[in-house]
Amino acid sequence: MIQVEHLTKYYGTTRGIEDLNFQVSKGEVLGFLGPNGAGKTTTMKILTCYQPPTSGTAKIFGHDILEDPLEVRKKIGYLPEKNPLYTDMTVREYLNFVGELKSIDVGKLKQRVNYSIERCGLENVQRRTIGKLSKGYQQRVGIAQAIIGDPELLILDEPTIGLDPRQIIDIRELIKDLGKERTVILSSHILPEVSQVCNRIVVINQGRLVAVDTPDNLRSRLKKTSVITIKIHESPESQNAKGIVESIEGVILVNEKESTDDVKVLTVESDPDKDLRYEIAKELINENVPLLEIFSEELSLEDIFLKLVTEEVS
Amino acid sequence: MNATLAIYRRELKSYFQSVTAYVTMGIFLALSGYFFYSIFRYYNYISYQTARNPYASQPLNLIDGVMRPLLGNISVILLLVLPLLTMKLLAEEKRQGTFELLLTYPLKDIEVVMGKFLASLTLFAVMLGFTLLYPILLAVFSNPEAGPIISGYLGLFLVGCTFISIGIFFSSLTSSQLVAGVATFGVSLFFLIIGWASPFVGPTLSKVLSQFSLLEHYDSFAKGVIDIQDITYYLFISIFFIFLTLKSLESSRWRS
Questions:
Q1: Do B96 and A70 count as a contact with CB atoms less than 8 A apart?
Q2: For residues B98 and B96, what is the distance between their CA atoms, to the nearest angstrom?
Q3: Does A50 contact B96 at a Cβ distance shorter than 8 Å?
Q4: CA separation for the pair A242, A157 (Å, rounded)
Q5: Complex ipTM, two decimals?
Q6: What part of A 80-99 touches B (C-beta under 8 Å)?
Q7: CB contact under 8 A, B10 and A97
Q8: B17, B89, B101: which to substitute to probe chain A, counting the most A Cβ within 10 Å?
Q9: HSE-up of A128 (CA within 13 Å, CB side)?
């Protein structure tokens, strides 16, 4: 379990992060979400014991990052944002080197290197020089380097940045897969990525914690009113559709949008705690209104994110 | 310990994989070869002169006539080439960003620094080892005293050790290899000549300056005297700069 307590970091007088508090349970995949410069990388650098915080601390599987940094570093695999690699080494040489630095037993080293290579799909390039590999492969080498010590916690800073769409999908799959057997913290400013890969999201903006929750809860929490959209075929029966919907209990407001062609569109604002789709559909069908479609609009994670971030600023 | 060894091996390999090792060794050996040639020819010339004129004869021997000036000159070449070897040690890692990763591995800073220091030291020792050819040549055609040659080499090795520790310190301060190299060269040179001002300053300062002078301490090695005080001096300076390097790494965590 990872406990972050009152973590604060100032660079001179510039705020990096301020009073971050959150927890990550074992086996969880946690996403750090925030615009560029929000403090995601700063938090990760502190958790990996690369930088000390100005105040506050964090415990990683019981070891304090300030008191016991060597123990903490043993439990962590880290992929920094820029994915720094020794470009003059071959993939296998490099992983061997990292394995030795992470003091893996000589007897187990070869097996761990093979495991990392296989896990990250590097079999075909293992004897090639890292500097000559594509960005996607280099990113895999970065991840291979992070998992070689069989860490309990993987910290990945923007693991898919700068990759092409195909590579992004591959890396996401790999992360999901790795997340099955260990705790993962990853940062991103790309929302669909976080919602796809992570169980829980920490939203940071301007160094402060904005929200911590599961993607689904974040969505429903922010749905202050839910909006149901109804599409009806234009016909004599549909004239009084608006009235029918308005009479249903829990409906706050019904707007009729201009109909296009033969389709009339109604948007219904209702009590967020109640799902009225079934009620509405039943009433309309009973009155022989030709109902084409009915759906409740979910706020996209983008909307939530923007909402959270702008609310924090204002 | 394993980690130190891993870093040591990687560093040494990267010297030989890039052209660094070959260029620095090549230049070093070419220059010292030329020095040997010219010093030896001069010695030869003087010998002829004295042989013809027994009254003008001065005590001539291979140690004072060849080995001492040769090793003295080699120490100056070291001043030029050792900063080239040490400047990349940490600066390169900082520039590439691999430094960040290195500091998040379960390593102590000293393991990193010692691995790199020893790699440079090894390359330097190999370089110096090649110049043993000259005393061997002398021994083939004559019989120079072994003692002063051994002590001279030991002194030179310690001088190199000092330059390398200065080099690794400046490499830890910056991500620019050029800055690290130039600063190392400047400070090493200063340590070499710091004693020059000693005749002109007060007695106390004069003593301090000559005590800190690299040349002053090297002199007794060249004469064939191995003094524990001189060895302590070189070790002290080396350890001091390695200590500064460790402090610089520690503070870079706070600054970055």
A1: no
A2: 5
A3: no
A4: 51
A5: 0.85
A6: 80, 82, 84-89, 97-98
A7: yes
A8: B101
A9: 13
Q: Which CATH class is domain A224-297?
A: alpha beta
Contact A120, A161 (CB under 8 A): no
| Whole-model pTM over 0.95 | no
Name the interface residues of B facing A (CB cutoff 8 Å): 2-3, 5-7, 10, 14, 17-18, 96-108, 253-254, 256
Residue of A101, A147, A150, A156 for testing the chain B interface, max B β-carbons within 10 Å: A101
In chain B, where the domains are located: 2-255
Q: Give start-end residues of each CATH 3.40.50.300 domain in chain A.
A: 2-221
CB contact under 8 A, A84 and B100: yes
Q: What is the pLDDT along chain B (256 residues), one digit of tens a residue?
A: 788 999 999 999 999 988 889 999 999 999 999 999 999 999 988 888 887 876 665 677 888 888 989 999 999 999 999 999 999 999 999 999 999 899 899 999 999 999 999 999 999 999 999 999 999 999 998 888 889 999 999 999 999 999 999 999 999 999 999 999 999 999 999 998 888 888 888 888 888 888 888 888 888 888 888 999 999 999 999 999 999 999 999 888 777 6
Q: A50 vs B100: CB contact, 8 Å cut-off?
A: yes
CB contact under 8 A, A82 and B18: no
CB A287 within 8 A of CB A237: yes
What is the location of CATH 3.30.70.260 in chain A?
Answer: 224-297
By the 8 A CB rule, do B95 and B175 touch? yes
Burial A114-142 (b: 16+ CB within 10 A, else e): ebbbebbebeebbeebbeebeebbbbbbb
With the CA atoms of B186, B187, B191 and B194 taken in that order, what torsion angle do they form, in degrees rounded to the nearest 10? 70
Question: What burial letters (b/e) apply to B53-76, b meaning 16+ CB within 10 Å?
Answer: eeeeeeeeebbebbbbbbbbbbbe
**Is there a contact between A174 and A120 (Cβ–Cβ < 8 Å)?**
yes
Nearest by CB: B6 against A82, A97, A145: A97
Residue B187, SS3? helix
Q: Give Cβ neighbours of residue A118 (< 8 Å, ≥ 6 apart).
A: none
**Cα dihedral sign for A229, A231, A232, A234?**
positive
Asked if A190 contacts A40 with a C-beta cutoff of 8 angstroms, the reply is: no
pLDDT for A309: 63
Residues of B in contact with A76 (CB under 8 A): 104
Q: Which CATH class is domain A2-221?
A: alpha beta
Residues 6+ apart with CB under 8 A from B158: B221, B230, B231, B234, B235, B238
Residue B202 DSSP label: -
- In whole angstroms, give the CA distance from residue B189 to residue A222: 68
The torsion of the CA quartet B215, B219, B220, B224, rounded to 10 degrees, works out to: 140
Task: Give me the mean pLDDT over the A67-81 stretch.
Answer: 92
Identity of residue A189: H
Identify the closest residue of chain B to A74 by CA–CA distance: B106
Q: What single-letter DSSP state applies at residue B65?
A: I
